[in-house]
Amino acid sequence: MQTCFLGIGSNLGDRRKNIRLALEKISSLKNTKILKLSKIVETKPMGGPSGQGKFLNAVLKVDTKLTPLKLLKQLQKVENELGRKRTVRWGPRTIDLDILLFADKVIDRKDLKIPHPRLMERDFVLEPLLNLL
Fold this sequence. Notes:
Elements: E1 2-10, H1 15-27, E2 32-37, E3 41-43, E4 55-64, H2 68-81, E5 96-102, E6 107-108, E7 113-114, H3 123-132
Antiparallel strand pairs: 1-4, 1-5, 2-4, 3-4, 6-7
């Protein structure tokens, strides 16, 4: 098992329910176990179109046997199952799942960058992450 940290957020619909459903789906992933969930915080959207609702955000500490790419594919599947539409960059979304850190890996691919490239710019991710380390 390798330890990774995931960002989770929602600013459409019943945000708490969206997060709860995503947690249920992540906990049911093969060879993956949620170890800890940070406090959920409400934040203003960063970037994207104006007029978006506030986000609920949290960070998960997870153990997994999945590779980073397989985990990414599974997280995207969860997003799709929960109604995520990718129409506008940084636009409103029912659920947003990001791999922030994955063990000691550094990955720089077009479809996956670890550590997350904007990790250091986002206090709403950094603060909960630091509380889980």
